[in-house]
Design brief:
Strand order of the largest sheet: 6-11-10-9-8-7
Structural class: alpha/beta
Distance between the termini: 46 Å
Shape: elongated
Order of helices and strands: HEEHEEEHEHEHHEHEHEHEHE
Strand content: 15-25%
Oligomer: single chain
Number of strands: 12
Amino acid sequence: MHYQDALAEEIRASAARLLAEDVGPGDITAQLIPEAHWSRARVITREPAVLCGVAWVDELFRRLDASVALRWAAADGDRLEAGDCLLELEGPARSLLTGERAALNLLQTLSATATRTRRYLDLLDGTGVRLLDTRKTLPGLRLAQKYAVTCGGGHNHRIGLYDAFLIKENHIAACGGIAAAVDEARRIASDLPVEVEVETFEELDQALAAGADIVMLDNFALDDLREAVRRTAGRATLEASGNVDESTLRAIAETGIDCISSGALTKDIQAVDLSMRFIEQG
């Protein structure tokens, strides 16, 4: 399945799951409000952020109540400042309240990933290094968080275990060496990229000799990263991984490597502080 088709299907499925887990057989508190009561509400951010999740919220309210009108003041990937209104909603008060938490949960989480990604990219400005995500995503949110990374300006490393080879220590041991693992990967799917994770210069040399497309340098010190760049001399794409955070990111990039991957973009995030408030009722 094409990535965009898979993402569209995931948006529909995710909206259905969110409503099922939160609403269940019905929102009993919302029933306190008269069915005909009509309201308008705004969603604001209480902190700077990069927005992500518009399509999920649109789909959620479409499923919940198609009479709810949503007017977005920002698009996925836009920067928001504290106090900005990102969305106005108008419709039955019951429906606005029933969809509120599911919508905000998704927006807060995906915007957190997009925001972290953009912050890292700001630190990389001018280096030309590509920022990559990993498979260390929140359970059930793989495609959503991968999309959020792109909204923040980053790049998807691989979506799952099916669209690229990443040969790690245990693969190497089970295959009988780096050369054997790379050869087998080429035999299985010659059109897919082959990446090898290495921990030493000896393994780096073996990966280069085997013709790996990408070499992941796992937890290399800065001087060792520079030496790896010199040894490789453009024969493969070099990716730095491990010990990546805001304090180390720039220094790693300045060693001359091509890419930096970080699980922190998706697994160590803190939800963006969003709030929905009614502004008009009738």
